[in-house]
Design a protein that fits this description.
Blueprint lengths: L10 H7 L11 H4 L3 H13 L8 H16 L8 H23 L4 H6 L1 H22 L1 H9 L9
């Protein structure tokens, strides 16, 4: 015999070595937990993971507008009430950011020219950032209430 061949090993040994005889039940968290809440969380995460095309105010405002429209388009039917409320709060905060940006036509020079407008814009941005933090903080509670499967939110 010139070397070890797989044909010489009994099939049951190969199957056992491959792990086909497991002693614990297999749980498929990725597919087993696909409730509307899981799907909604994943969609929100994907929306918030988007990045602006550049680091200037118009690109940032465009991203916020795109994200807000996408969040508004999500179907909240059958989704955990706390998650829906957190997303609605984020939409409200981002709408205020957009309102402030529209007031200065997304022009950084106008913000530099008016301390009051700059403060209002900064305040609305901080509120939106805090809203995103509260949304991300729901992860552990959702995992407890819905049996896991909620990955950290993107963005």
């Amino acid at each position: 015999m010139r070397g070890f061949t797989l044909r010489a090993v009994p099939v049951c040994v190969v199957v056992f070595a491959c792990g086909c005889f497991l002693t614990k039940p297999v749980t498929l968290t990725e597919t087993a937990n696909r409730t509307p809440t899981h799907a909604y969380w994943g969609q929100v995460s994907g929306i918030l993971a988007q990045k602006p095309a550049s680091q200037d105010i118009p690109a940032y405002v465009s991203l916020v507008r795109t994200q807000t429209e996408a969040l508004r388009g999500l179907n909240p039917e059958g989704v955990d009430d706390a998650l829906v409320a957190a997303v609605q709060d984020l939409i409200r905060c981002e709408a205020e950011v957009l309102r402030r940006a529209d007031m200065v036509d997304s022009d950084p020079a106008m913000l530099r020219g008016s301390k009051e407008m700059a403060n209002a814009f900064a305040t609305s941005n901080r509120a939106a950032a805090e809203s995103k933090k509260r949304l991300r903080a729901l992860q552990s509670g959702l995992n407890e209430r819905h049996g896991g499967g909620f990955a950290p939110m993107g963005g």
